[in-house]
Every structure is written in C-alpha cells, then in structure tokens.
Amino acid sequence: MNIISSKEEINRMVDGIHTILALPEEEYNLLIEKMTPNGKELEALRFYYLTDGCENPKAPIQIGLEQERDENDKRISRYYFCSENFSMHEILEYCQSMLNNYSTNSLEYSRINEILHTRDLDSFKAFYSSEKDVNPMLLDKIFEILSSDDMLSRFVDYSNNTEIFAIDGKEVPLSNYLEHLGQFFGNKDKDGSLSNSNRISSDFFIPDLEELKKRYLQIFDEINIDRYVNPVYTFSSGPKLDDKIVRYGDEPNWTLSSETYQEIFDNMPQNLSLEEQAMYIYCKMCTIFPYFLMMRDICIGIN
Hints:
Elements: E1 2-5, H1 12-21, H2 25-35, E2 46-49, E3 64-65, H3 88-97, H4 107-117, H5 121-132, H6 136-146, H7 149-155, H8 174-185, H9 199-202, H10 209-222, H11 226-229, E4 235-237, E5 255-256, H12 258-265, H13 274-288
Parallel strand pairs: 1-2
Antiparallel strand pairs: 1-3, 4-5
C-alpha cells in the first residue's frame, strides 16, 4: 500500500503516519482491511511524497491511500520510487510511541490502537495458524511457555511434564512445539544473536517480543532446535535420540542420507590430501547444517 503525503514536514515515516491518521473514513477503513492479514498475504506500507520521482507522472495526483486502479479498472497509480522502506514493526513501534500525544477519546488515539491491533500477537497467531494449518490451541500454549518462567522450566523438562503440554487431553510430541518455535525465531547468527529477518520480528509488532526471544534462547540452549529451524539436510539412520543437546564425547554414529552425501562430496576438488579432504568436508558441513553456522565464514575461500 502506498501512502502519499503532500510535503515533507518531519520525516517520511512520521509524515506518512500523520497522513494515515487524517484519512477520510472510507480510505481509512480500506487501509485497516488491507493491513489485517488475510490468508497468506501480508501487505506492506510504503511512504511517498508528491515530490518523489515516479514512472507515471501523467496519472492524477492522489493524497492519502493511493488507489492503483479506478472504477473502470484503468491504472491510475503514479508508481513512485526512491522511497526508504520501513518494516511494519518500525512503523507500528513509532505509532505506539505517539499514543501519549493524543487524548484517549480522540480519533487519532482510537485509530492508532486499531492500527496496532492489525499486527499484534493475536494477529500473528491467526495468520500463522491459517498459513501453516496449525491448531490455534497449540500456538496459545507456545506463547504461554514464552511468557512464563514457570512454564519455561517445565518445558525444558518436557518428558516429566507431558500432561501440562497436552492439547485437548492428547499428548503432543515435543517436536511439534520445537518445529514452530524454530520457524518463529530461527537460528543464532555467528555472534550468538537471533536474526530479525523473520515475520514475527518484521511484519508484526509485539511489544514484549524481546522477552519472548530471551526465553526462546533459553530453550535453544537446552534443547536441540537446529533440526527444526531449517530441516533441509538430514541423517537417514542412527541410534534413537531425544532432543537433548549432544555433548562432546557422547556423539552417536550416524549414516548420511544420499542427499547430504551428494551435497558434501559432489564438488570436492580432486587430489586433495587427507588433511585437505577433512578440512573441506568440515567446512562444507558448516555451510549446510545450521549448528555449524558459527564456522560459516571459514568456508568462503574453500568452495
């Protein structure tokens, strides 16, 4: 969605938000409808000024929510460019900071709260449940774990607390929880931090998200979530293990799947010494297994 402001007064994002708060009711309701996640689509907000460059300058000037087509289905968008992009999280975080500027019974205060509600935690759960076909009760339980130290301590001792995490009286495998946790927050980077390049961090605004992430990191350090974050490459056979971290000296013997074997060995240079082969294999594994992520930079000159 394109929001067009007449001129720069403060900065692009703030001016765009002020334009939204002043929209005519019909345009505002359409914006709320588009911002609310629908199925698998998430609309973004882009802010422009009338003075920005555009591909179709002959199109009629529009202020506010730009309409792409008219009633005759003719394209009337100006196709502005050169705009700085903002994540929905950034936009809504600033919206929340503006609440104190308005009285609680003002139109602006009401609109800001309504805008925030389009991408809050309940909105994320509804979107994720629809996109992934997940039981909403399971998602509620996951965020209960991430919101409570007591639930968190019980979760990391899952085998002794399965009844607490049952859904509709039925026991749920630990892997069901870990799969979605991994999809929410992803893996650690080489500095041990979580990336913000995921939907819950970029396309939604959850005020206590950092607290949820801290509890996720505690789970990450206690339980092996790597295989659920990006489960592309797998081992085909080996001893049965639970999801506890495998410590040094306790490593099992595994058989590589054909897909993994091919990915590792297909492009290995010929005539390498045994030491060079070992280094190549190890560095190749750094690039394809999430739990070798911290060694990824070493591989740049080897492949």
